[in-house]
Structure formats: structure tokens, C-alpha cells
Amino acid sequence: MTPQREKNSKLPAAAAWFTAGIALLALAWMVPVNLKSVTPALLRAAGENTPRVAAFGQQRLDSEKLGAASLILEAARLVGDPGAPELERGIRNIEARRPEWVPWGGWDPFLDPLFSLKENTGRTESTPVLTFFITEKARRSLRGFLANSRSIGVQTILQTRENQGTTRFVPANRAGGEALDAVILLTALLYQSDNLSPALQRELRVLAETAAAEKQLDRLETFYLDLLSLGKRLNWMQLGELLRVSGSALTVGEFAQLARVASDNLPLIYTAALYSGSADNVADYLMEYGKQGLADLRLALGEGQGAVRLLLRNRAPVNHSAALNISAVAEFALLNPRVALIAKYAAFFVGAFLLFHALEVFLSGAMREPAGDSRSSPLRLRSFLLAGMIALFLVFASEPFLIKTPPPSEFKFKLVVPVLAADKPDSPITEVPVTTAMDTTTILSILLFAALQIAVYVICLLKIRYISRQPISPQLKLRLMDNEENLFDAGLYVGIAGTATALVLQVLGYIQANLLAAYSSNLFGILCVAIVKIRHVRHFKRQLILEVHGDATPQPGDTNASSAATKL
After folding, report:
1. 318 pairs with which residues across the strands?
2. Helix (H) or strand (E) holding 448
3. DSSP code for 455
4. What is the reported pLDDT for 516?
5. How far apart are CA 461 and CA 467, in angstroms?
6. Could you tell me the sign of the dihedral formed by the alpha carbons of 204, 209, 212, 213, in that order?
7. What is the pLDDT of residues 326-353, one digit of tens each?
8. Of 469, 366, 373, 375, whose CA–CA distance to 7 is shortest?
9. Nearest to 169 by CA among 178, 498, 202
10. DSSP structural state of residue 430
């Protein structure tokens, strides 16, 4: 077979390997599973055949939880649930039949003997519960009712009314202590009526006992302050439903903070807590991811109850760049997340290896050598290493949150500590930003510069090997090697160009201002040229010089021309 025919016969094989590699990489990219994020396709698969927001609100309405259903209706409107109009009609029907339920959010047998819920108070809208509890008449009635309780926890909480060790409230038994008195009575009534989760009941009882022993409210006062904040925004039924799914006083505090700083989205946050069955998970998620987490939570609410539970269970942000959606693949990834993730990363590696194998077959045909020869291409010796690097690059590209640290949450508590004294009161305080992790674009820039230098390295070795296999004299080979000095220095040129490009992109704001990203290009270029010239060019020229002078005996540490050129 002629060299030209042999070359042409290898082109279809190279094209086939190349096509297989590209197809495998594309399939791997479409697998909607990530290590540190959740894809919209996975949320859609998790939410399929699970109750939507409006349907969940209807369940609450059927349980006569009018207040909770009203907040869920607002959330259904915010996420564009098509069932919102039907839920609204149901709520309006209940309000027309039971107008006395509207201020309290429903009917509760514990409230009926205290506030005569059957009587119309004249209030036609949902009313914050503390509006009722703050009056002297209501507090006197509550004290008389709760004094007869046989619950140890209720009596322990009521004893905190006599505690004088407050820092943010006026003591309940003093003038001006109406707010604290109302909150203590509200807490005791919530405890008595089983509107607190078991874990929260136990914690409050311990806090109340500690406060009585130390004669300081301390942490219990913080809870009272948080409950005051919620009690000024939620009616009785809404508050009780939330506290049933709150596992700790810390969660109540976080929800109070969210109600203050994200009041416009309180229906979404409240619905997510009831929807998932855990206010703790919702609060933790939003305190970690802030406004972006709220947007992700809103997306999950629009997909269904299963999507919300998946998002909170994974406690990871949504990767909005993953837009492809193949239902069958998404369902498999949902049922077998670890298997899907391993298969995705393995496909990245195998796909990259097939691309390098295609290049190997093509080069073996272009250089008129048999592809079966173990020395036919330097790529064969290092294909696994190069494929691993490309696979790692693809993993980073598909995982935007793998290295990138999420920004501080906008919803976290902001504690202001007053300064009692200072040497220079007029001196401004300068905050120094602390960078905790490199930006994803910086990582990708470094990987790109490394890949470019690997390409230069391969080209240099191909040229050395090409010269070594020419049927010419050693003197002529030496002259050809001298003629390729600029090629062997190409790593430096590429490195300088990469540094300049990175600096320009940083000035324009396309990547994070990080000198490591820029100067890494120069560093890789220096390493590439040093390895090519010291490890390969120098040894090859030394062998040629020995051949020119008639002494081709290898010296210790020397490498023959063929092996020096083929090692990658």
C-alpha cells in the first residue's frame, strides 16, 4: 500500500474515534447531576407527581387552617401556580361562612373560652396574634387560665414573669413590661396547646429552668424577642403551624430575622417550611446562601414538594447553567445520584481519551508509520495523563460551585457592638476584604494556560521525533534542530501572550483580579521550555554530536534519539 493510501485509510478511523469521543463528552455533559449543586432538570424530576403549592394550600384549608392557607396562596401566586385561583375561591368561601375565623386564622378550642371566637370582633382581616394578647383584659384572662395548668413546662415558663434579670425588655411585672408579659403568656399558651414541636418544648423548658436558677433570662429573653417579632406579623394559626415544624429556638430566631429582612418573601419562606416539614432546613439554607438561595428556593417551589425537599436535603445551590433536560436521564440521576455522578466523570475521562486516540491515529497516518507500533506517537505514552487533565478541566467547568465559595448571606444576623472608648474617635474604620477562595474563572484560566503549554510540549516532541526519523546524516539533523530553536522557545512566547491576555481581561472585569491567574501562564511557559530543552533537545543534540565524531556509545544518563523524542 502506498504511503498516501495508507494515510487515507487511517482518516476514517481517526474520524470515528473523534466522533465517539465528542459524543461521549456531550452525553456526560447532559447528565443532570453535580457534586456541589443541583440542576433544574433534577428539581423538575423530583417535583413530578408531588403536590404543587396550591394543592398543598388546599390540604391546609381542608384541615381548617385558614391562616396558613392564606399565606400559601400568596406563595402560589408568586411562583405562578395555575391552581392559585381555585385555592383563592376556596379561601373566600370559608371566609364568607366563618368570618370570625379570619382574624385568628382558624378556630382553636384553647382560644374559644378565652376570646369567645364565635363573636364577631369587627376585624375582617388577618390580625397579628400579639394585637389580641397585648391588652390588659386579655393578659388577665390568660393568666387566670394558665394558672390552672397541670403542665410543669407551662408553670416554669410563667415563673419567668417574676424574673428581673432582663437586658432588652422591661421586666414583666413592672410598668412598661406589657410586651414581655404578653410574649411570656403567648409562649405558655403555645406550650399548653401543643403548638410547639417536641424538641422546641424541651428546649424552652430547660431555658426557663435555667433562667429561674440563675435569675437571668439570658437566652430565653432572646427567644422572647424573636417570638415578639413573629407575633407582630403572623396570626395565631400561622404562628402555631410554623412553630410545630421548628426544632429549636435558633430556628425561631432565624425565621424572625428572615421576617424582618425579607418581609416581601415571607409567604415563600413560610410555605417552604411547611412544605418541607422542617423550618430548620429552610432557615439553614437561606442563612447560608442568602438572596440567591431564596431565588433557588422559589424555583423549587414552582416545581413541587419533591423539588423543595431535594433542594433542602442536598443543601446546595442550583446550577442554572445546566439547561439541558432529558427526562429519562434526570429520573435515573434522581434515583441513583452516586452512580450517575461516577458515570458522568468516567465518561469525561473516556471521551477525552478517545479524542487523544483519534489524534494518535491521525498522526500515525500522517507520518506514514503503522498505528500498531508502540512508538508510533508520543501521545500513546501519555494519553491517560492528558485525558485525566482534560477530564478534570471538564469537571471544574461543569461544577461552578466546586471551588467557588458562596458569598456571605444577606440574611445573616448583623451584630453591632458599641465601642465604649477609642484612642482616635475621628479615625474612620477601614474594612479589608478577605478572599477565601479563587473565583471559578481564575481556576479555568489556569487550567487553560496549562493545556496550551501541554499542546506546545507535544508539538515540540513531534518535531524532534520527526527530525530523528529522517533518513539524513547527523550533521544535517543538527542543522535542522538549530533551525527549530524558535519552535522550542514557543512555550515562552505563549506564556507571555497568556499573561498579557489575562491582565487585560482582569482590567476589563471579565475575570477576578488575581495575579496568580496571569503569572501562571509565564510559569507554565518557563517549565515547558526548560523540560523541552534540558530533557529532550540537549540529550538529542549530544547523541547527534557523538554520531558526527564517530562515537555513538551512549554515556550514563544519555537517552537515545528515538526514546528522547518519544517520551512525553
Report:
1. 38
2. helix 440-468
3. H
4. 64
5. 10
6. negative
7. 677 777 777 888 888 888 888 888 888 8
8. 366
9. 178
10. P
Q: Would you say residue 535 has pLDDT above 80? A: no
pLDDT tens-place string over residues 77-106: 999 999 999 999 999 999 999 888 889 898
Count of CA atoms in the C-beta half-sphere (13 A) of 163: 28
Q: Which single residue is written with the C-alpha cell 426544632?
A: 247
Q: Is the dihedral of CA 466, 470, 474, 478 positive or negative?
A: negative
Which residues, at least 6 apart from 347, have a Cβ–Cβ distance to it below 8 Å?
A: 24, 25, 27, 28, 31
Q: List, in sequence order, every residue forming a beta bridge with 466; answer none if it has no partner.
A: none
- What letter would DSSP give residue 255? H
Of the CA atoms within 13 Å of residue 112, those in its CB half-sphere come to 6
The rounded distance, in Å, linking the Cα atoms of 439 and 506 is 12
Checking if the pLDDT of 551 tops 90, the result is no
Q: What CA–CA distance (Å, rounded) separates 80 from 378? A: 58
CA angle 387, 389, 392 (to 5 degrees): 110
- The answer to whether residue 547 scores a pLDDT higher than 80 is yes
What are the grid coordinates assigned to 556, written together?
550514563
Q: Is 483 exposed, middle or buried (0-12, 13-18, 19+ CB in 10 A)?
A: exposed
Condensed to tens digits (0 to 9), the pLDDT of residues 214-269 reads 888 888 999 999 999 999 999 999 999 999 999 999 999 999 999 999 889 999 99
Q: So what's the pLDDT on residue 357?
A: 75
DSSP H or E segment with residue 28:
helix 3-30
Give the 3-state secondary structure of residue 38: strand
DSSP string, 301-358: HHH-HHHHHHHHHHT--B-TT-----HHHHHHHHH-HHHHHHHHHHHHHHHHHHHHHH
What are the pLDDT digits (tens) for 398-418?
A: 776 766 666 777 787 544 333
- Cα–Cα distance between 524 and 459 in angstroms, integer? 15
189 phi and psi, to 5 degrees? Answer: -70, -35
Of 230, 215, 150, 247, the C-alpha closest to 182 is 230
Listed in sequence order, the residues at least 6 apart from 21 whose beta carbon sits closer than 8 Å to its beta carbon are 351, 352, 353, 354, 355, 357, 358
Would you state the pLDDT for residue 498? Answer: 79
Please give the grid coordinates belonging to residue 320.
Answer: 442554572
Alpha helices, H only, 31-52: 40-47
CA distance 84 to 67: 15
Name which of 44, 25, 3, 48 is nearest 387 in CA terms. 25
State phi, psi for 318 to the nearest 5 degrees. Answer: -90, 130
pLDDT at 87: 94
Task: Provide mean pLDDT across the span 369-375.
Answer: 44
Task: Report pLDDT digits (tens) over 436-469.
Answer: 344 556 667 777 788 888 888 888 888 888 888 8
Give the torsion sign (CA, 326, 332, 335, 336). negative
Are the C-beta atoms of 41 and 32 separated by less than 8 Å? yes
Q: Count of CB atoms within 10 A of residue 93's CB? A: 11
d(CA 301, CA 282): 12
For 296, phi then psi, to 5°, come to: -65, -40
Alpha helices in 160-248 (DSSP H): 178-192, 198-214, 219-231, 236-244
